[in-house]
Structure formats: structure tokens, C-alpha cells
Write a structure and sequence with these properties.
Elements (H helix, E strand, L loop, with lengths): L17 H11 L9 H16 L8 H14 L17 H14 L4 H21 L9 H25 L5 H5 L1 H17 L1 H6 L1 E4 L5 E5 H33 L3 H5 L4 H21 L5 E5 L5 H11 L5 E5 L3
């Protein structure tokens, strides 16, 4: 296919299959793209927009277009087209997540350390959740503040409570406290940060992108899938790493380099996240669907009155 005839917005891989979505997210969550300057990202956006307008610069190759679309998808919001803040991008999940998770797993013994690293993690998560929300549903600064405080409080209460509760438990159980806190906080942080979608509904369309209305049930479905994905993303590193570290710390050479235990955990968590970030994002399609029969009665009746039985499913961006 010639570059001039390429549909830049058509999925490069089949998004109806897990493997197709996995290839897509390996592409757009590539942490190397987080190192690129804004000017390079803006160039990629300009090339994508030129392709959409059918006016490509002479000599543009298909590979250049694919790479420009990769950069565009990694750095610009799918709803608004605005450049996302660096820390909130999925391409920053590996470097950001590995550092925070590694230190959460390392410094789990004292309450002050638990409080500090859970606060850092929830601040990071709040920014990621806000950045990757469905941007068609605006949220006020006050709602952002309430969401942040609520999620952080949940994480701290869970972590500190379990930390104190597990003082007499086996060492491995205590090492799993950070994951329990992260999982609990995700169940609060994401819905709170995206509360406008739950309160007012999320825009749903037909298969051609024509808006049909707003659905609260669609919002709940999308946000639930995001919560599951985020917990899955963190689980392998935060559950398996403590087992690995507990066994490694029995070796004499590890006992001599205790100052390197933190950096070692950071690097090993990074290995998990390189695979788990795209895998977790791929569990559910980003362009989510829902049967018309499962929508709110008033929206269902509105769609049926206008289109009859021709529309069976509605579609919406669930966010990441």
C-alpha cells in the first residue's frame, strides 16, 4: 500500500483479539518514546494530521507514517488530540512504575516509609488516571482534589493497618502489604478520578462514530475494566518479587550488598512491567462495546425510536 493511500487511523493489528491488542500496546507503551522531546512529538502529530488531510509531504514512506502514528498514540489523548503530560502517559508507566513499586517493596517495614511511598504511588496514579480518562467528561479541580485525597487515604489506611496487623505474621505476608494497598486504592482512585463519567454518563456512538447519547452504565463498565487492568498490571511484580527477594536474601552475597537491594528490586520490577503494561492494557478493547439492551431504559428507548432495531451495540472509549 502506498503511503498516500494509507488509512492512518485504521488499526495496524486486529483489535478484536488479545494478541492484536498486545502488539498495539507494545507499540504505544514503548518507554523509549517517553524520552523524545515535545518538538519531535509535534512533528509526528503534524505528519498524522497531514495524512488524514490527504496532503503528505513528498517522499513520505509507509514506515515513517507508522512511526509517526506510534508517537502520536503514545503521547496524544485519543479524545482531544492534546499532548498528554509526560508522567501520565502509558509510555511512562515502566520507568515511573518500576521506581515507585521497587521502593514500595523495599521499604515496607516501618510506618513512615509505608506512608511516604504509598503517598508517592497514589500521587502518580492520580495523575495517570486523570491523564487517561475519557476526556469527553470534564472534571472540576475540586473533584480532582476529593478523588486524590480519598484514594490516598484509602491506600494509607490499608497499608498502615495491614502493616501493623502483620507484625507477627510470616515475613512474606508483610511483603505483600504494598500490593493489597495498591489494589484497594485502585478500586477507589480510578472511579473517583472519573466520577463525572459515572454521574453524567459517557458518550456512546454507533459503529460509525455517530453519537447516540450518554450512558452511566457504559461508564461503569469501562471504569470497572480499567480497574481490573491496573490491578493486573501491578500484580505479578508485587506478588512474585517478594517471593524472589525473600529467597535471594538468604544468600551470603546478598547479605553483603544490602544497600543494593532497593535498586535490584527496581530493575526487576521494570522487567515485569515491560511485559505487564501492554498485557494489562490489552485485556479489554479500548474501544469498548455494550449491547443496546443493557443500556438505561431512556437511552435504549431513544435509540430504538430513532433507529429501530438496526443498532444492536453502542461503542465508547473506556480510557486506560
Amino acid at each position: 500500500m502506498a503511503a498516500s493511500s494509507l488509512d492512518i487511523d485504521a488499526p495496524r493489528w486486529d483489535q478484536s483479539t488479545f494478541m492484536g491488542r498486545l502488539k498495539h500496546f507494545f507499540n504505544v507503551t514503548d518507554p523509549r518514546t517517553a524520552l523524545l522531546p515535545d518538538a519531535r512529538l509535534d512533528e509526528a502529530k503534524a505528519l498524522v494530521q497531514s495524512c488524514r488531510a490527504g496532503s503528505l509531504p513528498p517522499g513520505t514512506t509507509e514506515e515513517q507514517l507508522f512511526y509517526a502514528k506510534k508517537l502520536y498514540d503514545s503521547a496524544f489523548h485519543p479524545d482531544t488530540g492534546d499532548r498528554m503530560n509526560l508522567i501520565g502517559r502509558m509510555s511512562f508507566q515502566v520507568p515511573g512504575g518500576m521506581a515507585i513499586t521497587g521502593f514500595m517493596l523495599q521499604f515496607y517495614r516501618t510506618v513512615p516509609a509505608v506512608v511516604f511511598w504509598q503517598w508517592v504511588n497514589q500521587s502518580f496514579n492520580a495523575l495517570v488516571n486523570y491523564t487517561n480518562r475519557n476526556a469527553a467528561s470534564p472534571i472540576t479541580p475540586k473533584q480532582i482534589g476529593v478523588a486524590y485525597v480519598t484514594a490516598t487515604s484509602t491506600a494509607l489506611a490499608t497499608a498502615v493497618g495491614l502493616n501493623l496487623y502483620t507484625k507477627k505474621a510470616p515475613p512474606l505476608v508483610a511483603r505483600w502489604v504494598p500490593f493489597a494497598a495498591v489494589a484497594a486504592a485502585n478500586c477507589v482512585n480510578i472511579p473517583m478520578m472519573r466520577q463525572q463519567e459515572i454521574l453524567n454518563g459517557i458518550a456512546v456512538t454507533d459503529e460509525n462514530g455517530n453519537k447516540l447519547g450518554a450512558s452511566k452504565k457504559a461508564a461503569v463498565k469501562g471504569i470497572t475494566q480499567v480497574v481490573i487492568s491496573r490491578i493486573t498490571m501491578a500484580a505479578p511484580g508485587m506478588i512474585i518479587m517478594p517471593i524472589i527477594m525473600q529467597r535471594m536474601e538468604k544468600f551470603k552475597f546478598m547479605q553483603k550488598i544490602t544497600f543494593l537491594h532497593g535498586p535490584i528490586q527496581v530493575m526487576m520490577v521494570g522487567v515485569f512491567l515491560i511485559f505487564m503494561v501492554p498485557a494489562a492494557c490489552s485485556i479489554f478493547p479500548q474501544q469498548c462495546s455494550m449491547a443496546v439492551s443493557k443500556l438505561e431504559p431512556e437511552l435504549r428507548e431513544s435509540i430504538v425510536s430513532k433507529y429501530g432495531e438496526s443498532i444492536k451495540y453502542v461503542y465508547f472509549n473506556k480510557g486506560l
